[in-house]
Amino acid sequence: MPSSTDRILTTHVGSLPRSPRLLEANAARAAGRLDPDEHRALLGEAVADVVRQQVETGIDIVNDGEYGHTSTQSVDYGAWWTYSFDRTGGLEVVDNPALAEPHRSAPGKVELTSFLDRRDFTEFADAYGDPTSGIHLADPDQPPPAFPTATGPLRYTGQDAVAADVAHLKAAAGAAGAHGAFVAALSPGSAARIGNKHYASDEEFVYAWADVLREEYTAILDAGLDLQLDDPSLAESWDQVKPEPAVEDYQKWVQVRVEALNHALRGLPTERVRLHVCWGSWHGPHSTDLPFEHIVDQVLQADVGGYSFEAANVRHEHEWRVWEDRTLPEGKVIVPGVVSHATNVVEHPRLVADRIERFARLVGKENVIASTDCGLGGRIHPQIAWAKLRSLTEGARIASQELWG
């Protein structure tokens, strides 16, 4: 991961707001109304614009806004994951009622229930069902995405798509003079949360995804760009297990996913890889989130150069304390969120600086890169998203002055 000996660097988790023009083009491309070459040219222009905006805002380590992870809606919590469906063979949208049915786990066996059967959703069912509550999961006028099932051996088919991601970002970052650039990609554990009718076990399915996604990771790193692995499954899935499992059982389940991730990264330059962990980007109570302290040791076993995690929203800000009694491995950095995707309130730069300095005192100022909790695109209004990024960079400037003098 890029590091600095004279100031706090800034980045973000990945997703940035899409323009109406890009959303319309994505919808037209999906419906076959826009030529693929025309769409690719328009996408390249959009990436160039969003990279320029990031640099002008003061973001050091930029990305393509995840624009290559196609979204057709202004509110979209899932493009970080669903993009993989179009890049993987062996998947089909089939009649799989098990995906919508509640599942129950047992001692020693962790099994995810359906998404809408989460403990947080059921505990606050009235709030989630009330359009005036401030909770917004998706556009009610849009049909829900069709989640596929693995019906045969998985294989990677996204070579052209990842090549386009890489080409657009490299050109844009070079033109804008960015300090560094990364591409986000799905983790094996998060990929394996779809249906499976082919592989004999959960572990076999996760490792199959590791082998498939390794090709995408390799393409990004071979291009000279940094790689972010998006793995909400490590923390978020806890809420999708009913009844609430023993922490030890869940830790074993997480361990399989960390080991599969390391398998996917074997032999790659992992010092240029960062792992993003979060509790899901939807707006809601999150009262059944797993405390970070229960999985941070498993997260630190991931063979990556940086660890990105939520640290600004009100459910998890107090968890900076996990670093009081843990030693950050040599050569690693942390990438804590210091502004949140979960509120429309724009954080004051002084608060951002305080959050940064708190981590710097615990792990060393050279080992902190300031970031967002999660992706901002599709979660909050574009005007607010960019205001938060400006507050992030201003807070980092204040912290840098106070930490280095």
From TrEMBL:
Superkingdom of this protein's organism: Bacteria
Signal peptide from the UniProt entry: none
Residues covered by the Cobalamin-independent methionine synthase MetE C-terminal/archaeal domain: 9-67, 202-393
Record Pfam families: Meth_synt_2
SUPFAM superfamilies: UROD/MetE-like (SSF51726)
Keywords attached to this entry: Transferase
Record carries keyword Transferase: yes
Keyword Transferase tagged: yes
GO MF annotations in UniProt: 5-methyltetrahydropteroyltriglutamate-homocysteine S-methyltransferase activity; zinc ion binding
UniProt record, GO biological process: methionine biosynthetic process
Name this polypeptide is given: Epoxyalkane--coenzyme M transferase
Organism of derivation: Xylanimonas oleitrophica
Source organism phylogeny: Bacteria, Bacillati, Actinomycetota, Actinomycetes, Micrococcales
